[in-house]
């Protein structure tokens, strides 16, 4: 049976936190790793990616496996908390590694230009061109999907909404993993990308840094329809969202209720709530989880280190 599991290496938003009040849920910023078959797909390079990168390099060389170490990084957007771990991702510094880096274009520059500017003097001592690992960049747009073909390392990017271009898509029987994307428009200043990973008859949707709409986000719900797991932003409590002093409505993040509206509309199997407010310690997050389960029994506040085995937990769709 093929492997399909996800691990939360970082679930926090805005900035890292530390201290005893954060010991249960963790303090690393966003990073979710999906292992589909023998491929490692990483979603966002928050501080959580640092630990994953060390584990990945250590396990690869301890195994004595031939050939280069290959991993695939997908980014929702370029805000600092989602890329702050990228310069410290261990494979970038190791020869005989290949790291594919995908992300959406922003209005000012390409995704590659944004990362190269970030990982450069005066912000970082080692620019990307001095790192020993091979880097391959790719920009993706909403009409496109990334196909991973059985027995092939290089992914295939295809415009699946163009009648002629989608003919380049690999045949279903040759396809091992598909990553689909949907542009989200309600996060300042240039939106985010949502991702849906499909493998072995199951699917995972990553939808962080998104704010709800009245009656639920219909576009996102259609995109996530029937998914085994929905990972959704739920940064705010109702109190902080509607506060008279400093309301966070319009800041591009959801409440628990916003997230659960999408989960209900999409009829997903399980919902993990992420992008925790750095001001929310364990006690607050436990209260939020308790409230969430009153509405959606299969909802859970994601914790750093949580592992979900989709093969064992969900029947194929």
Helix content: 10-25%
Gyration radius, in Å: 19 Å
Proper CATH architecture: 4-Layer Sandwich
Number of domains: 1
**Structural class based on helices, strands and sheet pairing:** alpha/beta
Alpha-carbon distance between the two ends: 15 Å
Instruction: Note the beta-strand portion.
Output: 25-35%
Looking at this structure, what is the CATH superfamily?
Answer: Ribonuclease Z/Hydroxyacylglutathione hydrolase-like
DSSP, total strands: 15
Average pLDDT, all residues:
95
The low-confidence runs, each spanning 5 or more residues with pLDDT under 50, are none
Q: Please give the largest β-sheet.
A: 8 strands, mixed
As laid out across the biggest beta sheet, the strand order is 8-7-9-10-11-12-13-14
Report what the structure shows.
The chain has one domain (4-313): 4-Layer Sandwich (Metallo-beta-lactamase, Chain A), CATH 3.60.15. 20% of the residues lie in helices and 27% in strands. It has helices at residues 49-63, 111-118, 218-223, 238-241, 256-266, 282-295, 310-313, and strands spanning 4-10, 31-36, 39-43, 69-74, 97-103, 134-139, 144-149, 156-159, 175-184, 192-199, 202-207, 229-233, 270-274, 299-301, 307-309. The strands form 2 sheets. It has an 8-stranded mixed beta sheet with strand order 8-7-9-10-11-12-13-14, with helices on one face. It has a 7-stranded mixed beta sheet with strand order 6-5-4-3-2-1-15. Helix 6 (282-295) links the parallel strand 13 (270-274) and strand 14. The chain is globular, with a radius of gyration of 19 Å. The two termini are 15 Å apart.
């Amino acid at each position: 049976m093929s492997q399909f599991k996800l691990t939360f290496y970082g679930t926090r938003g805005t900035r890292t936190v530390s201290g005893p009040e954060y010991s249960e849920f963790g303090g690393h910023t966003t990073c979710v790793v999906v292992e589909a078959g023998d491929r490692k797909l990483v979603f966002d390079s928050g501080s959580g990616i640092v630990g994953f990168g060390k584990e990945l390099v250590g396990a690869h060389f301890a195994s004595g496996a031939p050939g280069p170490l290959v991993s695939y990084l997908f980014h929702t957007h370029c805000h600092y908390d989602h890329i702050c771990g990228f310069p410290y991702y261990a494979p970038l510094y190791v020869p005989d590694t290949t790291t594919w880096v995908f992300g959406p274009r922003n209005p000012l520059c390409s995704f590659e230009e944004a990362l190269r500017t970030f990982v450069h003097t005066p912000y970082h001592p080692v620019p990307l061109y001095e790192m020993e690992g091979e880097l391959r960049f790719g920009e993706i747009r909403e009409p496109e999907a990334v196909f991973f073909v059985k027995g092939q390392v290089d992914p295939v990017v295809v415009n699946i909404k163009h009648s002629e271009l989608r003919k380049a898509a690999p045949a279903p029987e040759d396809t091992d993993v598909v990553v689909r994307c949907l542009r989200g428009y309600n996060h300042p200043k240039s939106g985010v990308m949502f991702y849906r990973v499909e493998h072995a008859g199951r699917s995972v949707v990553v939808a962080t840094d998104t704010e709800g709409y009245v009656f639920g986000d219909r576009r996102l719900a259609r995109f996530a329809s029937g998914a085994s797991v929905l990972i959704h932003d739920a940064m705010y409590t109702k109190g902080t969202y509607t506060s008279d002093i400093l309301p966070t409505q319009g800041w591009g993040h959801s409440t628990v209720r916003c997230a659960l509206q999408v989960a209900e509309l999409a009829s997903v199997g399980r919902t993990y709530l992420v992008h925790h407010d750095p001001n929310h310690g364990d006690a607050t997050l436990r209260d939020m989880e308790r409230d969430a389960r009153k509405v959606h029994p299969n909802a859970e506040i994601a914790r750093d280190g949580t592992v979900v085995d989709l093969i064992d937990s969900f029947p194929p769709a």
